[in-house]
Write a structure and sequence with these properties.
The chain contains 7 helices and no strands. It is mainly α and 162 residues long. α5 runs antiparallel to α6, α5 crosses α7 and α6 crosses α7.
Length: 162
């Protein structure tokens, strides 16, 4: 069994990037990430997924959704800004295109965005994504396919305009 520090060191970057992709805000992503590791450690005997990484993503997503529900009851924030900084593993990509894709992802429904991020950024298998989202395997594949198709269509439309 891993110590807390080992678990944190191994998965912090992945959980933080995932939380940032959901929230679009560094401060909220930091809060979700911190709380994720605390809850994972407190409930370490109740892991219900095949991998610890998927378990951490499940906790992070649930925390994000819980915060969103609380925010809706308190009103929406007026100063919501998407973090323009690209993830370290995506630095080679064009900054303008990356920002455009991040903005487009923020407009998608949360479940679609989560499925896409888990597959593309975190390379989770479709079966794990289905477990995290509590949907069927085919539904997970369809969600990811639809997001990819929308991204491609949007990029083609932008190029045609230029």
């Amino acid at each position: 069994m891993l110590t807390f520090q080992e678990m944190y060191d191994l998965y912090f970057a992945d959980v933080y990037r995932f939380a940032l992709s959901l929230a679009g805000d560094r401060h909220e992503a930091e809060d979700v990430t911190s709380e994720t590791f605390v809850r994972a450690w407190v409930n370490k005997d109740r892991i219900r997924t095949e991998t610890l990484k998927a378990y951490l993503f499940t906790i992070a997503r649930n925390l994000f959704l819980e915060q969103r529900r609380k925010q809706k009851s308190h009103g929406l924030l007026s100063d919501f800004h998407v973090d323009p900084a690209p993830a370290p593993d995506k630095v080679a990509e064009s900054r303008a295109e990356l920002i455009r894709v991040q903005n487009l992802l923020q407009t998608l429904p949360e479940a679609d965005r989560t499925a896409f991020v888990l597959r593309v950024y975190h390379d989770l298998p479709y079966a794990e994504i289905a477990r995290v989202l509590q949907i069927s395997l085919s539904a997970a594949k369809v969600r990811i396919h639809r997001v990819r198709r929308r991204l491609i269509t949007t990029c083609i439309d932008k190029e045609a305009q230029q």
